[in-house]
Amino acid sequence: MPSQPAPSGAAVVANAVYRRTKVDGLAVSTLTDPIVEDRLVPVGGNYAIGDAPKPERVPSQRVRTDPTAWEAVRGLLAWDAADIEDARFLWRVSRRYRPLRFFGFRKSAMRLPRWFWFLYAFLVAKAMRVPAGEFAARHDRLIIVCYYHARSLGLVRAFRRQGKPVVDVQHGLIGPSHFAYANESAWQLRSRLQPTGFLVWSASAKAFLERTTGRSAEVRTFDDSRYFTPVPRADPSRPRVMVALQWGSVLPDVLVDFIASASWADWVLRMHPRDRVAAAERSDVARLRAHAHVQLEPEGLPLGASVRGADLVLTWNSSVTSEAAMAGRRSIFWDAAVRESFRDEIDAGFAECLAVEEIPARVRAMLVPSA
Fold first, then answer.
1. In the chain, which end has fewer C-beta atoms inside a 10 angstrom radius, N or C?
2. Does residue 220 contact residue 170 with C-beta atoms inside 8 Å?
3. Residue range 231-367, CATH number
């Protein structure tokens, strides 16, 4: 039997959904496959990987995580007692799962029910047993973004089966509304699909995760936006407002009407990286793009460059609020349910939570001197 290669340090894996994360300078590329980097390079006391803007670049590499047909069969047939606990964990987590349209906002799209997500995630994780196990054997720990996606679960399971730690990195707002973290009964189980710890960028996320999951969370905040040059403006005298759109929701009519009429500012609409729907298919974007003072942000533009080039950020409840605060920019959000999640930003004077009807007057007061 061939000997296993010695572990080569941390495997930092980013799934194909989220473009960036603000924890400890980890920059995540949006790819069709997970990426991995064996080395963490210190940058001013912090770390960065992949496409992180920094003096020295660290090349990323694709990882083979898809099993062959025979490997998938072997993985699915290899049952043990721990599989029952894994299935129980996923089923409990799925209680908070919100059915989503598989193709976004299209009226003809199929909605994914709870049982579909559970079955798909569980079977994919098991099918990855062979390639994920080989990958885990080459590393001593896993740092991963979005542990709960099906292919991510396969890697988490492989590392946990080998007794190696798995750290889940905060990628966005984490709180009571997030199905993958908010079910305390699920985290009372001892499943191999659970991370052993968390890296977060806020004290509120740390407190929430430690309370609901019983695992330790470490706060390591890093402003990677400082590496980016702000987006240039055609007319520096005009205010620039970045609107961070979010998948699964559209802008309220009150804000659409206000933005359409506020020609005294330049408005930039930033699509969520997970939004698979073409911008033209969103009713709010379609209505606003007819106006010359409203633009759709180019795909792939780094968030740091967009935030630093804005005077104000508007969003429903996006964690861009935190990114803006790190860059010294103000934000307004209108989801009162996440007010406490942004308590630090609010107390520092960089964020406000307002009712939708109050936002137009507040934006004018902030950006129009004569208002």
1. N
2. no
3. 3.40.50.2000
